[in-house]
Structures are given as structure tokens and as C-alpha cells.
Amino acid sequence: MTYYAKLHPWCIIRSLPNMRSLIIARFRRSDAEAHLQILKANTPNVPYSIIFDTTPETSDSIAKPGVN
Q1: CB of 39 within 8 A of CB of 7?
Q2: Per-residue pLDDT at 56
Q3: Cβ neighbours of residue 37 under 8 Å, at least 6 residues apart?
Q4: Whose C-alpha in 23, 26, 39, 55 is 20 to 30 A from the C-alpha of 4?
Q5: Is 66 part of any domain?
Q6: Are 61 and 45 in contact (CB under 8 A)?
Q7: Is 65 a member of any domain?
């Protein structure tokens, strides 16, 4: 997970057919809520929601002891 993603863990997602979703943008919590209100006002027929991204770090991004 990038440093930016760690600082902005809240995502606005758009629900797509077949149980898929698309991340629209990442925010801090208060910013996500404000942007969600704007999106819903401009496109009322499109389903958006806010989620907290709990994607775990991959083993490649974790520093291993003894390896520089």
C-alpha cells in the first residue's frame, strides 16, 4: 500500500453489475463524505458508497530483516 493510500484509506466506490465495484477516488473521511454528496447530487441514478480500504500490505512491500 502506498503512503498516499495509507493517508487516504476511505474510498468512494461505484457499484457495477456482477458484484463488481470501481474505486472512484481515495480521501480522508470528511472529504469522502463531502465528495459523495456532490456525486449523488450530480448523478442520482448511479449507486456510490464509501468504504474503508483494508487491503493488507503485500509481502514484497514489507522489509525483510537482514536484507538491504
Answers
A1: no
A2: 63
A3: none
A4: 39
A5: no
A6: no
A7: no
Q: How many domains does the chain have?
A: 1
At 33, give phi and psi (nearest 5°). Answer: -65, -40
Q: What is the pLDDT of residues 35-58, one digit of tens each?
A: 999 999 999 999 999 999 877 665
Would 68 be classed as within a structural domain?
Answer: no
Report how far apart, in Å, the C-alpha atoms of 7 and of each of 18, 29, 35 are: 30, 10, 17
Phi, psi for residue 21 in degrees, rounded to 5: -145, 160
Query: Which pLDDT does position 47 carry in this prediction?
Result: 93
Domain of 26, in residue numbers: 3-52
What are the cell numbers at 31? 472529504
pLDDT at 18 over 50: yes
pTM greater than the 0.70 cutoff: no
Q: How many residues does the chain have?
A: 68
